[in-house]
Amino acid sequence: MDIMEQKGRIFDIQRFSLHDGDGIRTIVFLKGCSLRCRWCCNPESQEYKIQPMVVQGEEQIIGEDRTVREVMEIVERDRPYYNRSGGGMTLSGGESLCQPEFTKALFMGAKEYGFHTALESTAYSSYEVIEGILPYLDQYLMDIKHMDSSKHKEFTGVPNELIHENARRIASSGLSQLSIRIPVVPTFNDTVEEIRDIAIFAKSLKGIKRIHLLPYHRLGQDKYQGLGRTYLMDHIQPPTAEHMHRLLETAEQASGLPCQIGG
């Protein structure tokens, strides 16, 4: 099959992003995820199926099937901004690796168009899937959420051994741009000790460029109501700026890597 005719399921395409890879980017959000993080701000991404969701009082259908060619035509619109800023296309979700053939085809298509490529991902997948996309991937923004597997499973639905093993293998692959992202979530991983442990793990990986601390927010809370679901974190408040800076200092000291708060 011509890769441009490969179809996959997306739920949004967001243009002019500044926080999902280098430069100005277009983010393609794919449907489907193996994790069920309690704080997920895109709960409409978790199910692969096309589903209704109430948005601002009106029912919308979330999810549509698109070809690589159709996606590239949208990404192409902002080529001048990519050229000026070093930006390009980022795949997000959900977890793009849950649609491995479509993800690979999108990256191959992007390379045919000459776009810089990035992936936001948990790396919860077989390494064979990840290995297949690495030749077409410029930047990997990888979530490492916790070092304790039982707590990771309690809050995300899956253990973390596969994620950590894939992180080691991706870091050893020679990928030139690999960053670790830590969603900082109160009651889950927002202690100095927990952030220090993740930073030490990041330090052990070859070629890590940067650690991003992403403070928990509640911007996706209304989506749960729109999907008829209960938001399990409604009693949790975002971390304060003071606490985030304390954790930033911890990550810097433990890893020796450049660290930042946010994107």
| Secondary-structure element order, N to C | EEEEEHHEHEHEHHEHEHHE
Helix share of residues?
Answer: 25-40%
Name the overall outline: globular
Counting helices, strands and paired strands, the structural category is alpha/beta
> How many beta-strand segments?
11
> Radius of gyration, Cα only, in angstroms?
18 Å
Major β-sheet strand ordering: 5-1-2-6-7-8-9-10-11
Report the sheet with the most strands, covering strand number, pairing sense and barrel closure: 9 strands, mixed
Oligomer: single chain
Bin the strand percentage.
Answer: 25-35%
Low-confidence stretches: none
Distance between the termini: 36 Å
DSSP helix count?
9
Mean pLDDT: 97
Structure description:
The protein is of the alpha/beta class and 263 residues long. 34% of the residues lie in helices and 25% in strands. It is built from 9 helices and 11 strands. A hairpin with a 7-residue loop joins strand 1 and strand 2. Helix 7 packs parallel to helix 9.
Short description:
With 263 residues, the chain is α/β, with parallel strands linked by helices. It has helices at 68-76, 79-85, 100-113, 127-133, 149-156, 161-171, 192-204, 221-226, 241-255; strands at residues 7-17, 25-30, 51-55, 58-62, 64-67, 88-92, 116-121, 139-143, 177-184, 208-215, 259-261.
